[in-house]
Amino acid sequence: MNVLHFVNAFFGDGAHWHGYDGIPTRLAEHVRYCLIALAIAAAIGLPVGLVTGHYGRGGNALALLATAARALPSFGLLVLMTITVGFGLLPVMVPLVVLAVPPILVTTYESMRSVDPSPVDAARGMGMQESRILLQVELPVALPLILSGLRSGAIQIVSTATIAAYVGIGGLGRYIIDGLYQRDYEKVVGGASLVAGLALITLVLFWAAARCTVSRGVRRGA
Amino acid sequence: MIRIDTVTKRYPDGTVAVDRLSLDIPDRSITVLVGPSGCGKTTTLRMINRMVEPSEGAILLDGADIRKQPVNTLRRSMGYVIQNAGLFQHRTIVDNIATVPRLLGWSKQKSRARAAELMERVGLDTALAKRYPYQLSGGQQQRVGVARALAADPPVLLMDEPFSAVDPVVRKGLQDELLRIQDELGKTIVFVTHDIDEAVKLGTMVAVLRTGGRLAQYAPPAELLSAPADAFVEDFLGADRGIRRLSFFGSDALELRTEPIVAVDSTAEQIAARAVTDAPCLLVTGLDGRPLGWSAPEDLTAGAVHTERLISCGRPFVHGEDSLRAALDCAVLSPTGWAVAVDGAGRAVGVVSQQTIGEAIRGAHAEGRAEAKAGR
Ligand SMILES: Nc1ncnc2c1ncn2[C@@H]1O[C@H](COP(=O)(O)OP(=O)(O)OP(=O)(O)O)[C@@H](O)[C@H]1O
Ligand SMILES: [Mg+2]
């Protein structure tokens, strides 16, 4: 018996395709948690990264904060949150956001710092306001790196969102936990491959987003 | 007029980049700031559009302190060109040029039409409009930089070493283009360079700064070359100052000789009549009057010109238009020692020997000295 066999058996079983524990339901739950967590992480990481990167201040503080955040174990945070605020969406979101903010924040900051200073100088000399310089001169050039930061944040969220199952709100982690508990390896492998598949789709989506939003002049040639 | 009034710039770390500088920059002319690296040229230029604020003193634009108007309004009224063009790599050429019109709230269509107009003005093929900066050569990018600075038709143009990153041939083309554009538009241009030849070529007035940000001399280029204020300026002007100064003397006063010129279809008698004793050779011209080359008289005795044996006459100078420097250069490069003068259409109008040019140079210098004396 190999992994492929498990995969075949899991996805071949019609019972896995409907009901509250069916693949569509679990997948939808998982995707929903991921999107919420990514949106919150981006809402924190992007503006802070953009503004600090534009003014070139606070880089050291950011790096320190990011390292500290990375050192926090997601599972430990989940347990801690559950103890303090109980079950529900919040204890899941906190570790996911804490996990995804550092790559988004740090990459955004670095990408803004690495923008060629001479167009920025030219823009300022032409009388462009700082906000426009940030959004219309620096951001379009920094965009590929910013997207890569978002992408690594998103991938980490997708794989870590399995912890939602521990607090009873489902997601793809359900299959893995239940499978392990029931020694149903078909379920474990099936759940894991769904998570992996979702991660792959995330990669593809980010690639497509980069194709659509990054200027040809920044991509060069391609 | 831009008046820089005893301006000092001290950076936070204590560096004095500009020291009590006063300059009156005349309207509708090119004023060049030149000097060794670190002498405060960029700092001075950037104080004019308030990219740097003076520590002391004031800068007046048409009599009013530049700090009186909102900083972005001031900047939008001054074109700004920097060394590596500083183009926006995510925008097409036409959108790069349209930047300031867009900032001023012009419609997209009007801005783009204006941008296309400027591409032609700076000598760029409008087929490049939809390209991105990375698809252009360095020289083309610099032209886009100039077009972008001119887009909203600002009265003032600030240029910081705009041509220093391109090779000498391209640079010469860009300089000629700038002079041509300036002839048409008559902007008040402040131009920073560390290249004294560029300063002399472009400047109506040249300000030489010395290290420490102090003004060493402020004069028209011809005066700079003929009467450097001190040893620093003289040293900065370089060794061949005398030769370069010849650029400011016209060739129209040169006495041309027309006898040693024969047409390619001349008869033996005509040729014989043309041979003069002090000219070593005869200049042969084509049927259209253009110079073909020098021919030794003995080659002509057969009664016909041997076009295949002609000695090259090099690049001729345009009489009345080119300077004495160009005339001397032609004579020095010519194997016969004689320079060929042509008219605007390229037809030979005469020849002149090195000796005659030498006399003209001495005469011009004597006149220059007399003028300088009278001026004092
Ligand atoms: N932001 C700054 N902080 C501190 N010192 C500065 C700053 N900018 C320039 N300087 C110093 O001020 C002096 C003049 O600098 P500036 O850039 O005006 O020189 P420059 O004449 O343009 O030189 P270059 O020909 O090399 O461009 C230099 O000694 C430089 O090191
Ligand atoms: Mg400089």
Automatic annotation (TrEMBL), chain A:
* Protein's membrane topology: Multi-pass membrane protein
Q: Which residues form the ABC transmembrane type-1 domain?
A: 27-206
Is Transport one of the keywords?
yes
Report TM segments. Answer: 33-55, 61-80, 87-109, 157-177, 189-210
Spell out the family assignment given in the record's similarity comment.
Belongs to the binding-protein-dependent transport system permease family.
Q: Its principal location?
A: membrane
PROSITE patterns linked to this entry: ABC_TM1
Q: Which InterPro entries match?
A: ABC_transp_perm/SBD, MetI-like, MetI-like_sf
Please report the name of this protein according to its UniProt entry.
Answer: ABC transporter permease
Instruction: State where the protein is found.
Output: Cell membrane; Membrane
Keywords for the protein's UniProt record, in alphabetical order:
Membrane, Transmembrane, Transmembrane helix, Transport
**Nucleotidyltransferase in keyword set:** no
